Structures are given as structure tokens and as C-alpha cells.
Amino acid sequence: MQNSTITGIIIMKSSTHFLFLVAAFALRGAYARNPNWGFTEHMLNYAMEMVKHASEEPRDEVNILPEYDFIVVGAGSAGCVVANRLTEVSQWDVLLLEAGGEENYIMDIPVVAMLLQFTDANWNYKGVPSNKTCLGLTNRQCLFPRGKVMGGSSVLNYMIHNRGSRKDYDLWEDMGNIGWGYEDVLPYFLKSEDIAIPELAKNTKYHSTGGYMTISYPPYRTPLAEAFLQAGIETGYQIVDYNAETQTGFSFIQTSTKNGTRWSTSRAFLHPIRGRKNLHVSKRSYVTKILIDHDTKRAYGVEYIRNKKRYVVHARKEVILSAGGINSPHLLMLSGVGPKKHLEDMNIPVIEDLKVGYNLMDHMAVIGITFLVNESVSLRSDMVFQNGKDLIDYFRYHEGPLTTAGGVEAIAFYDTKNLKGIKGYPDIELIFIGGSIVSDPTLRKTFGISDYIYERTYKPIQKSHAWMIIPTLLAPKSRGRIMLKDNKPLHKPLIFHNYLQYSDDLETLLKGVKLSVDLSETEAFQKFGSKLHDVPVPGCEQFAFRSDDYWRCIIKHLTCSMFHVSGTCKMGPASDQGAVVDPRLRVYGIKGLRVIDSSIMPVVPRAHTNAPTVMIAEKGADLVKEDWGQLG
Ligand SMILES: Cc1cc2nc3c(=O)[nH]c(=O)nc-3n(C[C@H](O)[C@H](O)[C@H](O)COP(=O)(O)OP(=O)(O)OC[C@H]3O[C@@H](n4cnc5c(N)ncnc54)[C@H](O)[C@@H]3O)c2cc1C
Ligand SMILES: *[C@@H]1O[C@H](CO)[C@@H](O)[C@H](O)[C@H]1NC(C)=O
Ligand SMILES: *[C@@H]1O[C@H](CO)[C@@H](O)[C@H](O)[C@H]1NC(C)=O
Ligand SMILES: *[C@@H]1O[C@H](CO)[C@@H](O)[C@H](O)[C@H]1NC(C)=O
């Protein structure tokens, strides 16, 4: 079966269960090409692992009680951690409500990360069409995938495990968030970690073993990934452990994977505790409202829809919102907590006037900068899916190219304000991909690249070997906003990302693009004859190719999200007019309601946001325990 047929089916059926069939077909095809490979044995191993995976997720509870001590909304990166830690207190009972369904074995094959965006495990958000950025994308819309599945976005993400630097969290503390400085949060990063990289594990100040979340290097690497690190050395940078003392430098990615498979927060934090009697999980349960008493201003439960029926469930102690950077502010506003004027415009009775939905931050990036090579050394999706050996390597041994994190292999962090300083505070990240995802007709759709640009610029190199760098802006000045479209809970909110509100952001990204091109010219990459793909992107043809203005135009056309939407329920002290939650994550003015997820970040760390979100959940759960006299 052709790769295009496979991906076509995935898109058509849009059902995660269909992924199983795809894998079975692929294996069947591999066997047809290599009949001496012991088909039965491999299929048996595949089937056994599949069944084991399915049986380890906590079951979907049908007998929901009328009342729980705590209700956690959303089983994502944060919600799974919170549910685990709160049910450590045996006299508490907890209900975890998740809009999505089961995570499955296929979703946890690292290389398929991008394909999951075509399934029903994605909320499928799109930004409001912008006039400044995303200009080369269909309808000028940047895409905002989010996980709608057990594990949330930790099932859709690229698994890069990255904490950020000391300064990121010291800044939170300086803003008045007592208890969130680096020395306070480092123990929480360590608490969940189980590092499976021996040379890093030795550094016990920054790493630990035995936690729920396993961190590994993927067992497979392209020669191009090695070249990327070599290029770093050639240009005067260091190889670093970016989760330790120094962030600026080059590294292979540390990933949230275990034995070559994705280790989502559901697998890490929920599978091992599926036997706890005091945890109920209700899947395909879409929360539509947090119930708040108008007089006492206490949150006393939630309303949700399951199988087209409406239910109400009460909370004795607290409702905890862990629905993520887009959905947490959405739900708060629907429930009467948000900017007064906006809620009135939407005909929602206002319970508390707070700046919900403001302060949206994301790491914007530029997609499409591609370098051609003269040897067959890159990852190509058609080869990965059709090469029988690669499939067997994965299904039998959890090895080979299918273990790479959606093609991402290595990263570099730069402080462009102090390029040669080694102890910098990074403002640019270069994400290295050992293949070209924009010249794949299917994968480019995950970034929304328009058909016209694809046909003209990228289709001609569809069959070539190539690699890419995605320059990413780590410390955006720009702030966006989430707003309601109307007061219907099932309607998607509006996402105003507001990328490049400030020209500084554009100029910093421009430096990132130029650094990427410089790397391609190193000896390490010239060994493979690396050459910048030079078919100009329509819309930018009026500028001299490779000129600064050409690159500025590219940044505005091929804009993409690095998926780190955060900050929309900002944490801050009482004096902060923009704060939605206090430093104990309690929603201002409302009793019995906290937000614990990526939306509380006052400033997004200069890092990928999964590990920081898990940290927030670890610390948040301790704050809850402390407030109810259950800590230690
Ligand atoms: C495609 C992609 C790639 C990424 N790559 C990386 C990476 O490589 N490294 C990294 O560190 N970070 C990465 N991220 C970001 C990281 O995964 C997120 O920052 C993190 O998962 C956010 O966690 P959260 O708990 O705030 O939200 P989520 O994990 O999104 O969890 C929210 C959960 O709440 C559920 N929910 C929402 N609304 C409702 C409702 N009304 N009722 C019931 N349930 C609801 C959702 O279905 C979801 O399960 C990526 C994200 C994406 C989408
Ligand atoms: C983009 O421009 C159009 C026409 O000028 C305008 O109506 C629209 O509101 C603008 N969109 C944004 C997001 O600014
Ligand atoms: C990793 O997975 C493979 C394939 O299922 C299995 O054979 C192997 O024993 C696993 N390794 C570890 C260390 O668990
Ligand atoms: C690729 O290009 C490099 C640099 O020009 C050259 O040294 C190398 O031999 C080429 N490899 C092949 C397979 O053509």
C-alpha cells in the first residue's frame, strides 16, 4: 500500500481507531516484500503490546457519583498529574473528566506525531485570519492543534523535554509569585523525572531517576543530526545538557519516551495507578460549565455532556481546571468569570470581572527553510512507512526511524543579543528535523501551507533528500487573546495570536533564519552537499532571494505555531491587574476553584512547555494538599 493511500485513509476516516488498521496493513505489506521475516511472530508481538496498552489505561467509569471531593477538568499534561497526586490522599475521591477518548498504541509511535493532528484526537483550532502573519497559509490561518484524548497535548506533542532556565522562573518570582523561583520549582521538575540517559543521570543536581516520567534519547539518529551538532561545534558553540546549568548550545533532544515509545502524561501518571479506588475517570465527557453560586461565589460542581446527555456533578472541596491554554479560559468565560464588557456582549451573567483570555503567549516559528542533500541520509515519510525493516524494527524491538520524535532530532539555543557568550539566556531556538516535512504533501498540511505555495515551491523537491531547521522565537513581546465567539459551549473560541505585534519579534526571528542558513554552510553539512532550496515562495518573489527583506517576507508568510499557547489565565499577586489566579493558583474572587495548567504561566519560559506544565501540576497539587492540611 502506498504511503499516500495510508495517510489518505487516515484523513478520510479521521478516527484514531483506524490507525490500527493502517499499521496492520503496513506490516502486511512489509511481510509481502520480505516473506522470510516471521510475519506471525511480529504480528503477535504487535497485537500483544496493543492489548496490553489498552488494558493499562484507567477504565471509563460508568457509575459516576453525585459528588466528589475534587473534580479535575481535562486529562492533559497537567490534569493527569493532578489526578495522580490528589488520589495519593486515600480519604479523598477525585473525578477526572476528559472530553477525548482512549490513547492507543499507534499514537505512541513517536514518528507518527504529526499524523495525529488529522484524527479526532485533535481539537483542531485555527487562529483568526491575520493580516500580518500566516499569509502563505490556507485562509491566512495559523493552526493550533491541541490534544483531545487521554493525555491531552502530551499525546500530540513532539516529546521534546525541556525545562527552561533559572531566569525564567526567577522572573515569575520577581513578578510577585512567591514560591515559583527556580530553587522552588527545581525539586518539582526532579520529582516527576526518571532520566534514562546514563551520562546525564550522573548530574544529580539537575536530574533524577525513579519518577513517573521517563526521559530518553530516541535510539535512532540520522547522520544529519550528528552533522547538526558538529556544525554547532564548528561555529563555536558547545554541546550542552539544556536541562542543566547552561541552556545556550546544541543538543540531541531529550524526549518524554520510554523504550522507544511515547510516554504521555496519561501513560506516565495514570496507567500505574489504574487500581486506585478513589479515582474515577470519565471519558468523552465534555464539560460545558463550571457551576458557581452567584451569592457565595463558590464553585460547587460542573455540568458536562456525555453521549449527548447533560449531567451535573458536585465537588465537596474544589473544582480544578486543567483544560489547557485555550480551553481553560474558554470555560471560565462561559461560566461567568472573565472580562465584564466582553461577557456582557456575549449575554453571559458576570460573576467575577477578571482578565481571562488575555496575555496569550506562544512561540511563533517559521516553517519551510529546507536544505537539499546529495545522499540518501534523511528521513522520508514514504520510506519510513514502506521499508519493511523499519516497521519490523519498531514493532518488534522499538528501534529504528519510527522512534524519532515526529522527525525532530536536535535543537540549538542562541542568545542573539550575546552570540558568543556561553552562559546566555536564549531568545532563539533552532529546531532540527532530519527530513523535509514541507515537501511531503500530507505533512505540510499540519502547518496549513497553501496548495499554491506547496505546488510551486515544495512539490518539485518532493522526491529529494532534505533537512530543515525551524527557527523559533523564545521570548515574544507580542501578546494575543482568546475570546468567545458566542455563549455556546460547543462553539470554538476565537484565537487572536497577534504574532509580530512588535517589530523586535520579527528582527529576532530574522537572526534565527540567518543562523540556520549559516549552519548549512559548515563543513559538517557540506559533506552532504547541503544546499538551501532556492525556489522562492510566491508572495515573496519581489525580494532578492536570501536578502533580509526576503526572509522577513518568509517569516510573515510561512508563520507557524510551536504549539506553546500559554498565559491566558495569568498567575500574579493581588496587585497585578492582569492576574486571574493567585500564586496558589486560586481564581481571584471565587472560592473552590483553581486553574492548574499551562494557562497560568505569567511569562512563557524560553522552552517547550510540556515539562513546565507537568512541574506546575506537581506544585499545584502540593498547594491543594497544603491548603487542606494533607501535605507531608
Ligand atoms: C502538536 C504539538 C506539539 C508540541 N510539541 C511539544 C514538545 O515537543 N515539547 C513540549 O514540551 N511541548 C510541546 N507541546 C506543548 C505541550 O504539549 C503543551 O504545552 C502541554 O501539553 C499543555 O498541557 P495542558 O495540561 O495545559 O493542556 P493539554 O495537555 O492540552 O490538556 C488539556 C486537556 O483538557 C481536555 N479538555 C479541554 N477542554 C475540555 C472540556 N471542556 N471538557 C473536558 N475536557 C476538556 C483536553 O481534551 C485535554 O486532554 C506541543 C503541543 C502540540 C499541540
Ligand atoms: C484584516 O484586515 C481586514 C480588512 O482591512 C479587516 O476587516 C480585519 O479586521 C483585519 N483582521 C485583523 C485580525 O486585524
Ligand atoms: C522494549 O520493547 C521491546 C519490544 O516490545 C521489548 O522486546 C524489550 O524487552 C523492551 N525493553 C525494555 C528495556 O523494556
Ligand atoms: C556530495 O557533495 C559533497 C560536497 O560537494 C561531495 O564531497 C560528496 O562527494 C557528494 N556526495 C555524493 C554522493 O555525490
UniProtKB/TrEMBL annotation:
<feature type="binding site">
    <location>
        <position position="287"/>
    </location>
    <ligand>
        <name>FAD</name>
    </ligand>
</feature>
<feature type="binding site">
    <location>
        <position position="149"/>
    </location>
    <ligand>
        <name>FAD</name>
    </ligand>
</feature>
<keyword id="KW-0274">FAD</keyword>
<feature type="domain" description="Glucose-methanol-choline oxidoreductase N-terminal">
    <location>
        <begin position="68"/>
        <end position="364"/>
    </location>
</feature>
<dbReference type="Pfam" id="PF05199">
    <property type="entry name" value="GMC_oxred_C"/>
</dbReference>
<feature type="active site" description="Proton donor">
    <location>
        <position position="564"/>
    </location>
</feature>
<comment type="similarity">
    <text>Belongs to the GMC oxidoreductase family.</text>
</comment>
<dbReference type="InterPro" id="IPR036188">
    <property type="entry name" value="FAD/NAD-bd_sf"/>
</dbReference>
<feature type="domain" description="Glucose-methanol-choline oxidoreductase C-terminal">
    <location>
        <begin position="476"/>
        <end position="617"/>
    </location>
</feature>
<feature type="active site" description="Proton acceptor">
    <location>
        <position position="608"/>
    </location>
</feature>
<dbReference type="InterPro" id="IPR000172">
    <property type="entry name" value="GMC_OxRdtase_N"/>
</dbReference>
<dbReference type="GO" id="GO:0050660">
    <property type="term" value="F:flavin adenine dinucleotide binding"/>
</dbReference>
<dbReference type="Pfam" id="PF00732">
    <property type="entry name" value="GMC_oxred_N"/>
</dbReference>
<keyword id="KW-0285">Flavoprotein</keyword>
<dbReference type="InterPro" id="IPR007867">
    <property type="entry name" value="GMC_OxRtase_C"/>
</dbReference>
<protein>
    <submittedName>
        <fullName>Glucose dehydrogenase [FAD, quinone]</fullName>
    </submittedName>
</protein>
<dbReference type="GO" id="GO:0016614">
    <property type="term" value="F:oxidoreductase activity, acting on CH-OH group of donors"/>
</dbReference>
<dbReference type="InterPro" id="IPR012132">
    <property type="entry name" value="GMC_OxRdtase"/>
</dbReference>
